[in-house]
Design brief:
Blueprint: E1 7-11, E2 18-20, H1 22-26, E3 34-35, E4 41-46, E5 59-64, E6 80-91, E7 97-105, E8 113-120, E9 125-132, E10 142-150, E11 156-162, E12 167-172, E13 175-180, E14 190-198, E15 208-221
Antiparallel strand pairs: 1-2, 1-5, 3-4, 4-15, 5-14, 6-11, 6-15, 7-8, 7-14, 8-9, 9-10, 11-12, 12-13
């Protein structure tokens, strides 16, 4: 079973989109966008779904919390910070792109890390791509292809690791990349996100991003 006691959930319905708090999530919440039965997590975000403030795309996405439901924001020097997941991307929108994991920055529209699956219809395969802002004020992040030729419905794992010294490592589908980040991130409150953030907002209600997670785990190991 995947432990949901350190997450809340945004679903793309309502204005603003609904947030399912941690206790309700742990208690077995499910709807057409999210289901945690059978020990897996099912996420669906149609291109027609409602969007969170300052976002142009819909998401069904978990956001890191404490077990009592309050938001969990952290600074990277305080611990060894890891997000691990095993998942399969089941459907992509016309753009071919869904975000499946993030390190976001509290109070900012610019995440430190986005891990994205990018499907190419010409090959029927997708790449796992990391978009990384080395500095908080970077307008455009670095784009790194972590792994290639990942088929839809194929299980793979990823790891996002940010050390207390500011070493960022991203692994996916058996490949790995790492780089130091700027010390100007030191005091920025950060948090993990995971799920499906559909990178498209036009099309039929049947179009969107669909992802199944088989494992999902956060660790903040004090040094």
């Amino acid at each position: 079973m995947i432990d949901l006691a350190t997450w809340n959930l945004s679903v793309p319905v309502g204005s603003p989109p609904a947030t399912i708090d941690t206790p309700r999530l742990v208690n077995g919440f499910k709807d057409q966008y999210f289901n945690s039965e059978n020990g897996t997590l099912f996420f669906w975000a149609p291109v027609t779904g409602s969007k969170t403030e300052n976002a142009i795309y819909p998401r069904t996405e978990l956001r890191e919390t404490y077990s009592n439901g309050t938001l969990h924001n952290w600074t990277y020097p305080s611990a060894d910070n890891l997000l691990r997941a095993t998942l399969a991307v089941n459907q992509v929108p016309s753009s071919g792109k869904v975000v499946i994991g993030q390190i976001h920055a509290y109070g900012s529209t610019k995440p430190l890390v986005k891990v994205e699956y990018q499907y190419k219809s010409s090959t029927n395969r997708g790449n796992i791509v990391a978009k990384v802002r080395i500095r908080p004020d970077d307008d455009e992040g670095r784009v790194i292809i972590i792994a290639e030729n990942v088929a839809l419905n194929r299980q793979f794992s990823y790891l996002i690791h940010l050390s207390p010294g500011g070493a960022l490592g991203i692994a996916a589908a058996g490949s790995h990349w790492d780089s130091p980040i700027s010390k100007t991130w030191r005091d920025k409150p950060l948090y993990f996100k995971a799920g499906v953030y559909t990178q498209d907002n036009t099309g039929y209600t049947s179009e969107g991003g669909k992802v199944t997670f088989y494992k999902l785990d956060i660790d903040h190991n004090k040094t």
